[in-house]
Amino acid sequence: MESRCVCAPLNVCLCVHALLLLSLSHILFVSIETRVQIQESVRGKDVFVIQTVSKDVNTTIMEMLIMVYACRTSCARSITGVLPYFPYSKQCKMRKRGSIVSKLIASMMCKAGLTHLITMDLHQKEIQGFFNIPVDNLRASPFLLQYIQEEIPDYRNAVIVAKSPSSAKRAQSFAERLRLGIAVIHGEAQDAESDQVDGRHSPPTVKTTGAIHPSMEIPLLIPKEKPPITVVGDVGGRIAIIVDDIIDDVDSFVAAAETLKERGAYKIFVMATHGILSSEAPRFIEESAIDEVVVTNTIPHELQKLQCPKIKTVDISMILSEAIRRIHNGESMSYLFRNIGVDD
Fold first, then answer.
1. Number of structural domains, the chain?
2. 149 with 245, same domain?
3. CATH number (domain holding residue 43)
4. Which segments constitute the Ribose-phosphate pyrophosphokinase N-terminal domain (predicted)?
């Protein structure tokens, strides 16, 4: 039997009066089922379930759902879920015959009995629309901006870099607040001519219309073809700061760092809110041209830091504890969203 408190493993200061900390017994049976037993009354109480995402993300989700449902069936007045990183947030768009998994997770949480959600830097802000309960999407950018100003001595000689056009909006937000320039990496590495598949002797493609009437031929969409890697913006002799929301598979960050090095950047930082850093990410970072990777503690990554000294952590527990305090006391949350525009 393993005893576990819902406020672990994230080190959050809960400065809330009369906040009920649940004492749970978490039992794994032979069939790998999870059982939650609340050891004290929650009837009429405001309950805050703090859950961080571990490597076993599916177990984390089930623990969260069962804890919330246990509180609901025990007549808790309100149940607020605090998920610093919302799992499956990258799967928020339909791709071919796939599914929008983040919508499914949101529906499950609401069905389990969640009445409020606190999270941080959703991969897409539109995910809030998947919930039929209030969602507070907090921002880690003030903490990352403070780190840049205090820990990078020559940050005035820096340029904010978006490693792809899709992250240009985030880079623009950082650049405008720091009064710095912006650069965008566009394109992809091109194969050498000898590495390309020679299709000159392949059979010609046959145009098929299937069941469509010959007079109703649907035009085909021209396939995309990315140009060679180019850097839009001057990074020569500058500090390059790559910003993003999630850093998991670091291949794209390593490739971006090599490109920036070739263009003359003399120091390269990577800053992200959620440091998943799975698999061989620490080793790849250590062997790359990246000088420092800065992430927040929304996801535990102590093991990764032991493997790679380049990984630094910014503590964001203060804003989470303040959000909990304000919700419990019925205070306005607008203070936590100061100077945050619609596009941020």
1. 2
2. yes
3. 3.40.50.2020
4. 29-113
Q: What is the Cα–Cα distance from 72 to 76, expressed in whole angstroms?
A: 6
B/e letters for 175-186, b = 16+ CB within 10 Å, e = fewer, are bebbebebbbbb
Which whole-number Å values give the CA distances from 205 to 202, 221, 305, in the listed order?
9, 16, 52
The DSSP secondary structure of 124-181, one letter per residue, reads SGGGGGG-SS-EEEE--HHHHHHHHHHH-TTGGGEEEEESSGGGHHHHHHHHHHHT-E
Q: What is the pLDDT of residues 94-153, one digit of tens each?
A: 888 889 999 999 999 999 999 999 999 999 999 999 999 999 999 999 999 999 999 999
Residue 92: give the domain boundaries.
10-138
- What span, in angstroms and rounded, lies between the C-alpha atoms of 296 and 298? 6
**What totals of helices (H) and strands (E) does the chain contain, helices first?**
8, 14
Question: CA 299 to CA 333: how far, in whole Å?
Answer: 23
- Does this model's pTM top 0.90? My answer is no
Whether 173 and 162 share a structural domain: yes
Q: What is the dihedral of CA 35, 41, 46, 48, to 10 degrees?
A: -30
Structure tokens at 217: 């031929």
